[in-house]
């Protein structure tokens, strides 16, 4: 599937989500179809030098107009869609863009819609209803990760800077040669060192962070407008300027005083993540921990430091680090997270299971198979739910492993998830296991519920696929399987006439 085709599909998705008359079923069908066709690809949409969005350097088709117009309207400078997250996020992305706007978008900005649409009908504030059926369907696939970079045009923070600092930042924005770029950053460094005498420590920290965030926006914009030498000069000069100030930036992140601090954190992710982890460990309130967690997500990197954070003795540090690694879909974290599944703290084990489910690779699934034996119902539910999603790209899951767990599982939710996992395997052995379960309704209430669920799942299988499997089982050597296959056939095949 080409980038152009995928952009066109995204534009149709945004249009459908912005149409009040559209049904959840229609939205679900498009989301799942789009995700399934592009399962193994990634797409990056960015704003080109002339201000027109591009997708991985590929010319986009005309019907991608809607998506690109929405990105312009929201001042989204870069959109990254990576394999490995939930299709649910793909739908949330569409819903987000059609019903919210960045606060700095002019009131007279062009409306979103197809070319030629009546502006009065533009879906600027459409509310998208997310029914349980839609969310269940979207949760059934673990595919996409949505990352939006709201790098608005430089200049948004200049008004809040002290005059000397504002002048120095302006000089960087106007610089056009490597020498003038370096000179501009040196002027910024001098202005930062000369903090106004009336400034409090908190105000000084906010000034530093706002100036650096503005410089990151300038660097981001000029990197596409200028040549490679100028872009390298921007990057190197900004790196040097950041080195002594990064601790200050992280402090404003924890205190929540400068919302734009995330720009700096992402730019300097490898250096910022260890500092954020230290702050996370020392955080005294839940709000501070939450800000640290969000900043770690914003960084989108620093994986080595995050993996080291899994060894921290404090449960809340390990829990948050595990969740961040899951959101990053970091495949190198699977083995460390599998070790965290053995931790004593149930909250930590649940976070590790969630992360492995998000990473969504065959090794991660293999690790979750072991989590089915966890004493915590919460951990088992996460593992069982992960096993039922998108089984076609999983490692082969042993039918015997699932059925043996089903026979001793004491939680009905886990048991029903495992029934769905068997159905997803779609093999003759799996259908045989479901047939046996449907015939074994005696005993505990859970066994009866599992048997009824097994029969319902088999009725959802197309007869063209199910009947050959049942015939194979009916002619096998296992007498129990033969009887169960015949019984299921009699119950799922509609009577003649």
Straight-line N-to-C gap: 45 Å
Main sheet strand line-up: 2-1-3-4
Mean pLDDT: 75
Give the helix/strand class.
mainly alpha
What would your notes on this structure say?
The chain is mainly α and 497 residues long. It has four domains: 3-149, no CATH class; 153-267; 295-386, Leucine-rich Repeat Variant (Alpha Horseshoe), CATH 1.25.10; 396-497, no CATH class. Helices cover 62% and strands 4% of the residues. Helix 17 runs parallel beside helix 19 (377-388) and helix 22 (428-439) crosses helix 24. The longest helix is centred in the middle third of the chain and has 25 residues, at 201-225.
A few lines on this structure:
The protein is built from 25 helices and 4 strands. The chain is mainly alpha-helical and 497 residues long.
Structural features:
497 residues; mainly alpha; Leucine-rich Repeat Variant; 4 domains; four-stranded antiparallel beta sheet; 4 strands; 4% strand; elongated
How does the SSE layout of this entry go?
Elements: H1 3-17, H2 24-37, E1 43-47, E2 53-55, H3 65-73, E3 78-83, H4 87-99, H5 132-139, E4 144-149, H6 163-174, H7 178-193, H8 201-225, H9 228-242, H10 246-255, H11 261-267, H12 269-282, H13 286-299, H14 303-309, H15 315-327, H16 334-340, H17 346-359, H18 362-371, H19 377-388, H20 399-406, H21 412-425, H22 428-439, H23 445-459, H24 463-474, H25 479-492
Antiparallel strand pairs: 1-2, 1-3, 3-4
Helix pairs in contact: 1-2, 1-3, 1-4, 2-4, 2-5, 4-5, 6-7, 6-8, 7-9, 8-9, 8-10, 8-11, 10-11, 10-12, 11-13, 12-13, 12-14, 14-15, 15-17, 16-17, 17-18, 17-19, 18-19, 19-21, 20-21, 21-22, 21-23, 22-23, 22-24, 22-25, 24-25
């Amino acid at each position: 599937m080409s980038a152009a085709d995928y952009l066109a599909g995204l534009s149709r998705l945004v249009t459908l989500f912005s149409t009040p008359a559209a049904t959840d079923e229609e939205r679900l069908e498009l989301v799942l179809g789009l995700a399934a066709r592009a399962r193994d690809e990634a797409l990056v949409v960015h704003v080109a030098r002339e201000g027109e969005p591009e997708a991985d350097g590929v010319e986009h088709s005309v019907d991608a107009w809607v998506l690109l117009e929405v990105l312009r309207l929201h001042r989204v400078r870069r959109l990254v869609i990576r394999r490995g997250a939930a299709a649910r996020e793909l739908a949330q992305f569409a819903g987000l863009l059609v019903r919210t706007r960045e606060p700095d978008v002019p009131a007279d900005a062009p409306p979103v819609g197809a070319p030629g649409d009546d502006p009065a009908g533009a879906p600027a504030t459409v509310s998208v209803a997310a029914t349980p059926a839609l969310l269940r369907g979207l949760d059934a696939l673990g595919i996409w990760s949505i990352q939006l970079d709201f790098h608005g045009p430089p200049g948004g923070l200049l008004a809040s800077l002290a005059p000397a600092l504002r002048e120095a930042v302006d000089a960087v924005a106007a610089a056009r040669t490597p020498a003038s770029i370096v000179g501009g950053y040196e002027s910024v460094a001098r202005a930062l060192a000369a903090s106004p005498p009336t400034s409090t420590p908190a105000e000084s920290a906010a000034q530093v962070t706002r100036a650096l965030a503005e410089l990151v926006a300038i660097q981001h914009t000029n990197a596409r407008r200028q040549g490679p030498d100028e872009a390298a000069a921007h990057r190197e000069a900004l790196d040097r300027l950041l080195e002594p100030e990064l601790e200050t930036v992280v402090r404003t992140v924890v205190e929540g005083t400068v919302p734009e601090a995330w720009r700096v954190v992402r730019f300097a992710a490898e250096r910022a993540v260890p500092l954020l982890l230290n702050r996370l460990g020392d955080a005294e309130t839940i709000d501070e921990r939450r800000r640290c967690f969000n900043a770690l997500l914003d960084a989108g990197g620093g994986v080595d430091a995050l993996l080291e954070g899994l060894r921290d003795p404090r449960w809340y540090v390990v829990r948050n680090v595990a969740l961040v690694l899951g959101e990053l879909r970091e495949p190198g974290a699977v083995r460390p997270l599998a070790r965290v599944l053995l931790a004593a703290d149930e909250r930590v084990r649940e976070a590790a299971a969630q992360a492995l489910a998000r990473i969504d690779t065959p090794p991660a699934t293999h690790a979750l198979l072991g989590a089915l034996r966890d004493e915590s119902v919460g951990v088992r539910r996460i593992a069982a739910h992960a096993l039922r999603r998108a089984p076609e790209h999983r490692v082969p899951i042993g039918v015997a492993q699932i059925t043996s767990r089903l026979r001793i599982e004491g939680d009905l939710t886990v048991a029903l998830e495992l029934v769905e996992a068997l159905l997803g395997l779609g093999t003759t052995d799996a259908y045989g296991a479901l047939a046996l379960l449907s015939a074994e309704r005696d005993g505990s209430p859970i066994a009866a519920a599992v048997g009824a669920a097994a029969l319902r799942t088999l009725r959802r299988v197309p007869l063209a696929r199910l009947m050959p499997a049942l015939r194979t089982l009916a002619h096998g050597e296992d007498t129990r399987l033969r009887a169960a296959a015949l019984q299921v056939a009699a119950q799922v095949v509609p009577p003649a006439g």
